């Protein structure tokens, strides 16, 4: 077996299962989970109709680069969403089976273990982070290096303190904007810094933007492709953007997304995926076209999140260190400011006393530069309906007040 498999840590939800082992939740309360970031809103009927109408596609082998109609639909959506010229659907866009598998497989295609003479290649990751980044690095023969979230930058990763010797070994940088779990959105200045570093050290940027359509203000989050165009990087050198229909359109089970950007990388990634077996079902492609071509269901979906966050956040702000994020569907809350309790202890007690599941922030991060930036924080995924999220918030507030009174 590949010895790098031994470097992989248990997924956060496996750690959560072990954390809760032997705990019996209070039977007076129904179970509510804010732990898993799985969309719970209804799948739009137009997507289901398109899928059913194209079931004959199951009789055909799909091509790895997808049908032209899907690539054109994605190109049109990108142009409208980010106010940029349409990307070349033939050379700059590639459908993928959800952004998760593409985030992983991109590292396998990009990393060259023989390229560095000063040690293993580096894959730069935000911290806290989506654990696929770390696993992709290890299994590509690289080492992950973590840029800790900076509370002063609304928990965006701070790349300014990374040593020159590390940048010299960097071959791939993952960045998530809007961020998981913090909801932070990178600014144009942030992107400018990353592009300049990419130019200087010749690494690829993988911009994970799967939460881009869930936001709370009037202005949609800036995307990496739009930032590149604004800075005159019209061919998107060393930039690959990844997005998905899972959160935008409430279809995580469809496993449908895309990568877009640098045509040279797309060409090589297509070659890799031809062997990797990354072709999307023709039926799923048809349903994906319907999804990318319709914006009304996205507006309605976003309104549900705005309603939830506007009601839940004030309740939790009374007892926890939490603020409305820039975007995404998570609340990233501090629990130790007044409570003197760890994130894992908080999660255990909340589950035991009120049957609410949240994810300890330390499970989403690694100790780096002397700290685990997720420690003493919790992630709450507000994916259920408004009433259930409000019930969870009220139970969390009651549990937190219970802890305060016990001190």
UniProtKB/TrEMBL annotation:
Gene of this entry: dapC
Protein name in UniProt: Succinyldiaminopimelate transaminase
InterPro entries: Aminotransferase_I/II_large (IPR004839), DapC_beta/gammaproteobac (IPR019878), LL-DAP_aminotransferase (IPR050881), PyrdxlP-dep_Trfase (IPR015424), PyrdxlP-dep_Trfase_major (IPR015421), PyrdxlP-dep_Trfase_small (IPR015422)
Entry-linked PANTHER family: AMINO ACID AMINOTRANSFERASE, L-GLUTAMINE--4-(METHYLSULFANYL)-2-OXOBUTANOATE AMINOTRANSFERASE
Lineage: Bacteria, Pseudomonadati, Pseudomonadota, Betaproteobacteria, Burkholderiales
GO MF terms held by the record: succinyldiaminopimelate transaminase activity
UniProtKB keywords: Aminotransferase, Transferase
CDD domains for the chain: AAT_like
Enzyme class, UniProt record, top EC level: transferase
Keyword Ribosomal protein: no
Source organism superkingdom: Bacteria
Cofactor: pyridoxal 5'-phosphate
């Amino acid at each position: 077996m590949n010895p790098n498999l031994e470097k992989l840590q248990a997924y956060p939800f496996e750690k959560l299962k072990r954390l809760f082992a032997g705990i019996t939740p209070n039977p007076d309360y129904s179970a509510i989970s804010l732990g898993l970031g799985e969309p719970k809103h209804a799948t739009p009927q137009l997507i289901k109709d398109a899928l059913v109408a194209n079931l004959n596609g199951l009789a055909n082998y799909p091509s790895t680069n997808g049908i032209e109609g899907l690539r054109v639909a994605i190109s049109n959506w990108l142009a409208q969403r980010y106010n940029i010229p349409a990307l070349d659907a033939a050379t700059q866009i590639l459908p993928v089976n959800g952004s998760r598998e593409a985030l992983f497989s991109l590292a396998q295609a990009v990393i060259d273990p023989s390229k560095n003479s000063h040690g293993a290649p580096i894959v730069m990751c935000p911290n806290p982070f989506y654990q696929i980044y770390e696993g992709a690095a290890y299994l590509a023969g690289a080492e992950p290096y973590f840029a800790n979230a900076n509370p002063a930058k609304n928990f965006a990763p701070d790349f300014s303190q990374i040593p020159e010797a590390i940048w010299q070994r960097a071959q791939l940088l993952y960045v998530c904007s809007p961020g998981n779990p913090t909801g932070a959105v990178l600014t144009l200045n942030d992107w400018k810094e990353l592009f300049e570093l990419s130019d200087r050290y010749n690494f690829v940027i993988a911009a994970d933007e799967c939460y881009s359509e869930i936001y709370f203000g009037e202005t949609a989050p800036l995307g990496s492709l739009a930032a590149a165009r604004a800075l005159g990087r019209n061919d998107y050198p060393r930039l690959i953007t990844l997005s998905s229909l899972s959160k935008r359109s409430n279809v995580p089970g469809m496993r449908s997304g895309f990568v877009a950007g640098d045509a040279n990388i797309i060409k090589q990634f297509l070659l890799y995926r031809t062997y990797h077996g990354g072709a999307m079902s023709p039926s799923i492609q048809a349903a994906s076209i319907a999804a990318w071509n319709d914006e009304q269901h996205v507006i309605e979906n976003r309104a549900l999140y705005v309603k939830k966050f506007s009601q839940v956040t004030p309740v939790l702000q009374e007892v926890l260190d939490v603020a409305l994020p820039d975007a995404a569907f998570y609340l990233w809350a501090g629990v130790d400011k007044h409570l003197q309790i760890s994130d894992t202890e908080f999660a255990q007690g909340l589950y035991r006393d009120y049957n609410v599941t949240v994810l300890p922030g330390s499970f989403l991060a690694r100790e780096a530069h002397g700290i685990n930036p997720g420690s003493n924080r919790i992630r709450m995924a507000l994916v259920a309906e408004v009433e259930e999220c409000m019930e969870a918030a009220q139970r969390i507030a009651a549990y937190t007040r219970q802890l305060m009174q016990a001190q």
